[in-house]
Fold these 2 entries.
Entry 1:
Amino acid sequence: MVVRTMRRGWTLLRTEVLVLPSRIVVLVFAVGLLVLPLFTTDPYLLRILIMASIFATFAASWDFLAGYSGQVNFGHALFFGTAAYSSALINVNLGISPLLSIPIGALLAGVVGVLVGVLCLRLRGPYLSLTTLVLPIIVVSVFFAIPDITGGELGIRRVETITRDRVANYYIAVCMMLVLCFFLWKLGNSRFGLILHAIREDQVAVRAAGLNTSRYKIMAFGISAVVAGLVGGFYGHFVRSVGPAVLAVQLSFEAVIFGIVGGIVSIVGPVAAVFILYPLTELLADFPAFQEFRLLAFALIVLLVLLFMPRGFVPWVRDRIEQVCPSCKNRNTRGRKRCRVCQTDLSD
Amino acid sequence: MLQDIFFTGLINSGIYALLALGFSLIFGVARIVNISHTAFYMVAAYMVYVLGHMLGLPFWLAILVAVLAVTALGVLAYKLVIEPIREHDTAVLIGTIALAAIFQELMIIFFGGHYLSIPALVSGYTEVAGVRITNQRLLTLAIVGVTLIGIWLLLTRSRLGLAIRVTAGDREVANLMGMNVGGIAMWTMGISVGLAAIAGVMVAPLFVVDPLMWLDPLIIVLAIVVLGGLGSLKGSVIGALIIGYVETMTVFLVPAGSFLKAAVALSIMVLVLAIRPEGLFGVAFEEER
């Protein structure tokens, strides 16, 4: 039994992962993150990687909504912030353990996501982006007006942590990211994801094919919001305080920036962008000379990446090491003579 | 009270109208959502501070130089950053966000993050309809009015204006008729940034100047153009009036209004969009619904 499962796992690994350089990179990255604490438990490094995991999942959930279904949400912080605030409020006021309050917060974020999805059904393109951009700002200014409940500008303090242990927190964050991103990636390649692709390209055609496009668009909003909410709630309990920054325009823009710099409609793209850019800017900030140039350096890097790779980093790299089979659309390592799936001649 | 609301609302709306018109123009002509639009407004305000306050130029000269320099900066930014990535809508969005962040950081590095204030260009006040209005605000009102009339004449009476309106109406047909669409986009970018610069130099003496001053107006301007209908110039002006007055009324009439002014203004925009998804004067997408 065990042997058979292992054998099946090995076959899966050999035929689905080891055949493509990009998937090997992802595997090495995931395993590397998981074994890292065996070599170093430097709290500063772990903190950077925990934050990177949080933002990576956040950006990936944005990609699922904006990239796959084409609803370019500019207020993704709304979901992150809703979950962070509600989870922290439940935890501080009712004394409910973070393990329960985070899922409750994420569910609330999901409800908000569905509501926003319904509101945005009739909006298109830039109208949708700009309306969603505005929503978290409305929430923040209402929060400022009722400081008794939300703590106003200071936010909520003394939020409980799941665990004080840095390594345990690290594993929670990393596992959460790996599981959630794998889930989003799988979902993106499923029938559901295919329908989202089709809606992005031609909504009328999908409707003509007899599919309820509204339902799929709302579901995309809901799923994306729940995922963003899970990491949002975790963020609040990890940092131990939740302030207006979790609903800020800057946070929403960060999701968009990481998504587009990494390459949308890939899930891997935003994750790669976060894990490259976030530690880089953090490490740069260590040099006192760079402290004040941090955001400037970040913006310049983003601009340069866009000028040379307008479709994003991951698609650019992938196009150089892999090719798409013209007949069956499966990916192959560049330089292969025949397609690994349908044996079509790739030599030209 | 009523007169206060009237005049304050008029000035706010005027400034917003200048910003929203420029934003709407470049969106209409080139389909560029220029997030860095209000960053140019901030740079113009800083230039007035440097030229007028630090270097001691006469203020009318400082204002003129600031507007021209920022316009040139806008065209330069268009050529260097926006044009190479114009084919990719999302890349343009991020590119302009990055541009705005760069301007913000440069201002922080050069001037620090604190507030700077610029003395009024003209002193004293005038009594109008029973309320005292500083002459600075009257001057702002006059310049905003003149600029709006000027841009209206430019768009309706000149060949360039005709070209801009035609390109905004249908870029492909304009291109097929042999018009230089790229060139027109560049001109429009210049006009658009110029309008933002005029708004910037006018608010500099009214409010304080700081590196984050572009963020709040940006949100309001986005709300205005979406409310009025993207690319519609009439919509931008009417949207600016609506949002400007709603904001002012919230501040004057509602308790804790200064916290809520953005929330009320933005909620109105969301409400309008829920009923009319293409904004008040926008063009409906004919392929849907």
Entry 2:
Amino acid sequence: MILKVEEINRVVQATILPEEASLSNADLFKEEMITILGQGVRLVIVSFENVNYIDSSFLGSLVVALKYAMPRNVDIYLVSLKPDVKNLLTLIRMDKVFRIFDSFEAAMGTLA
Amino acid sequence: MKEFSDQIKIVFDCNREGIPGTLNVCLTHIRNKAGSSRADDALLAKIKWVIMELLTNAVKHSGERQSVLKIGVSPKMVVLKKEDYGTPLMLVGQDKKKIMWPLEKLVRPMGFPIYHNGMDSLCVRTDESGKATFFIEALAEMEMPALLSDTSEHFGLLIMTKASDEFAYEHDPDTGLNSFICTFNLIE
């Protein structure tokens, strides 16, 4: 298991547990995300609070999850990204397709 | 990398479990050699991303049990070179045409776009020798980034191209040696 999951009112907080989000766990992340997205939720907030670095394989899995979510009308927000991780997402323009927030609370604030 | 008399050479066993340890060895060497004044945190972060991608590429694509990572540090630059004798590079252009090394003499030099994410077009051009240099052409922003229609396999190339000052690939048809070379200019 790579994600610690909590669900309240069809909103899921999914915290990535390892500090390396990389080739070694990208497939598992994709599988766990697709399982969550298939359970009728409306929003998945992925927390990167533990992640110190990320690679292209994991970023690919993140995009696959988003592509799976979009036709199901599920949003994916990303929160608590450390500067290196956020800068890498920005470098390849992934900040244009994901909504990114500083914290879980800030992401939840959009749901009023 | 002739100008780097004290370059280090790291043999990487092309397994994903070995990536974090190898990454740390590389970064420690670069920090020690370059010093924090010329390799600030932002530059070291970019170097870290590129080393990650070079090692990930070795695991995913080389088909070899071992790759060699050479690191050279001079007063002006850091050069990372990943070498292996595995499967040569194959690129698929945006027109779905496949380009494989070694390139036929007839097609050199050449250039074509590989991938775009709606804002950046990742392109490659080769010289007469077949050496490929990757570069980015800026596109006008699109409403729906193409990031969502073309995933993953090009992210690594995109990261290495955008994070480094020069990113190139060479294939020696006589020996079968593949080399990915990333150059970073140090702060003056």
